[in-house]
Structure formats: C-alpha cells, structure tokens
Amino acid sequence: MDIKNADFTSIFNVASLQNRHLVDLHWFTLAICVLIAFVVTGLLIAVIAKFRTPENDDGSEPRQIQGNIRLEIIWTAIPLLIVTVLGVLTAIVMLVVNPPVGNKQPDVVVIGHQWWWEYRYPKLGVTTANEFYLPVGKNTLFEFRSADVVHSFWVIAFGQKMDAIPGHPTNMWVHPIKTGKFLGTCSEYCGAQHGLMRIIANVVPQEEFDTWIEKQRAVPEQPTDPAAVRGKELFNSATCVECHRVAGNEDAQALIGPDLTHIAQRETLGTGVLANNTENLKKWMQNPQTFKPGVNMPKMRLTDEEAQDIAVYLESLK
Ligand SMILES: [Cu+2]
User: Fold this and answer.
1) Which CATH architecture has domain 1-41+82-205?
2) How many helices (H) and strands (E) does the chain have?
3) CATH topology of 1-41+82-205 equal to that of 226-315?
4) What's the CA-to-centroid distance between 171 and ligand 1, angstroms?
5) Ligand 1 centroid from CA 284, angstroms
6) How many A from CA of 189 to the centre of ligand 1?
7) In sequence order, what DSSP letters do the residues of 147-171 get, joined into one string?
C-alpha cells in the first residue's frame, strides 16, 4: 500500500479514549490470568514434589481423605470473586465506551459500498470517500450504514469494530487522543475485493480539521487549462458521470461510485491501492480491474490521450 507515514496495525497503539479503556481492561484481565497461571502451576509443582512416591514405598494404600468444607468454600469463593470483578469492570467499560446515543445526530455517517467507503458529515454538509478526517480531542459520534451487503468498519488503533448493516444503522463513539494517519480495513467478508476495502483516517488538530472541511465544502473552480477543459468534456460524455459526482459539474451528479469533487486532495486511489498521481489515474480509469479484479467500475475504453486529459481534469479538482 502506498500511504505515507501511516500507522499500521496494532490495537495496542492506542489512538482513542475508547481504545484506552479497552486496552487497560485487557491488560488487567491478562494480569489476573497470568497470576492464576502462576499460582496453579506453583501449587501443582509443590504437590508433585511433596507427594511423590517415596523410595522406600511399601505399596500400601495412602491415607484416604473425604471432602474438606473449608477448601471447597475457598476455591469456590475466589473464582467467583474474580469473575464478578471482571464482569462488573467489563460492564462499566462497555457503558463508558458505548454510552447510549439517544436522539443525538451523528457527526460522521459512514456508508459501506462494495468495495469503498463513503463519508458524510451531515452537520457540516460534506460528502467524500475513502480518506476522512477527524479533529483530535473531541468525541465524535459515527453512524454506519451499508449500500449493499454487511461490511464492518475497523480502524485498528481506535479499537472497536462496528458492522455496517443494510437497513439497520449502527453507532460508535470515537474520541481520538493523538494525531496521525490511522489505517483499517473492512472486517466482515463482503465479496471479491473485501481485502482491498481499506480505511484511511486522518486525525488532525481542530484548526486543520476546519481547514479541511472548508476545502471540502468549496466547489472546485471550472477548469481553464485546455487539457482540463477537454478532460471535463470527455468525463461528461464518457460514462463516468453515470456513476460519479463532481460538485459544480451539473452533468456529474451520480452517487454509484465515490464522490470525485475533491479527488485531487486525496493521497490515494481505490481505497489505498494506488498513490494518487497522473500515471496511476490514467491506469486506473483505463482498467481498474487490474488493480481490484471484480471492482464495480468497468474497464473504460479510453485512448492514452483521452485518459491523460481526464486525469488533468481530475487533478484540477482540488
Ligand atoms: Cu468487507
């Protein structure tokens, strides 16, 4: 994957408050388990050493013991206590991590599509795809939906996974605690390109987030460069506009594929399979099937010159 400075996959690289709680609970549980393992192993070794057959064993039956109420109570009470403590802590963590949503409106609506992600910020009037931004230090409410089959949203450093189910919106809170680029992937098998349905989350300071939102809201300027003008015409007359939207281009208002209004601002194409540059744009639009076989964008019959012009147009969409 061609993504610069990205934070790859560890759940222990805690990037959200929710994951902080989950990882802390994990360590606490593990510590108890390790303690139990030591105690049990220690006792076992002690018993083996103490009660091994003596060298001068005469073969007679050892002393027979029947039950011990005190021991029975102790070894029932201790596990009960441990399980109760873990149960109560787990319930608390679940409530802290996923407090009731009530009738709060989501800050980000994520829509899973085979095999890419749509991101909407309904309160801010922004729609984009595949690469999204969050402000650090702010609890953000996500809503998940699906346009086709069940997907699952998982940014690894945020800890939790959440299914995106058709017709049944789900929610999740994410309170990012550090800036950076955090990666994830769809984690519910959803068809041929499930493995290349990647998630790219950028956590940035509030001001940077505001700037990004501002840029996303702006309608790109109409192209003036002759190649870009030709590219726009081609884009509108080829079938691109049957599937893609570009704000400010009345002919391109379809929402089958990713919104391309600010495609030039994205670092990657096709959920991170290619770096976003002229060469790759051309290769992608001429035949996306080479990069994501089975993908829902057909092989477009474009000459090199046509692809070049469309690429110049797309690159003008800042
Ligand atoms: Cu999937």
Assistant:
1) Sandwich (2.60)
2) 7, 13
3) yes
4) 18
5) 21
6) 4
7) SSS-EEEEBGGG--EEEEBTTB-EE
Which residues in the chain come in under a pLDDT of 70? Answer: 1-8
From the number of C-beta atoms within 10 Å of its C-beta (0-12, 13-18, 19+), residue 100 rates as exposed
Summarised one tens digit per residue, pLDDT across range 150-177 is 999 999 999 999 999 999 999 999 999 9
Q: Domain boundaries in the chain?
A: 1-41+82-205, 226-315
Q: Find the 230 Cα to ligand 1 centroid distance in Å.
A: 37
The angle that helices 226-237 and 304-315 make with each other, rounded to 10 degrees, is 110
Q: Model-level pTM?
A: 0.90
What are the pLDDT digits (tens) for 227-243? 999 999 999 998 899 99
* 281-304 burial code (b ≥16 CB/10 A, e <16): bbbbbbebeebbeebbbeebebee
Answer for the pair 303, 249: CB distance below 8 angstroms, yes or no.
no
Ligand 1 centroid to residue 167 C-alpha, Å = 17
Alpha helices, H only, the chain = 17-50, 69-97, 206-217, 226-237, 240-243, 278-286, 304-315
Top CATH class of 226-315 equals mainly beta
Joined together, the tokens standing for residue 174 give 């994410």
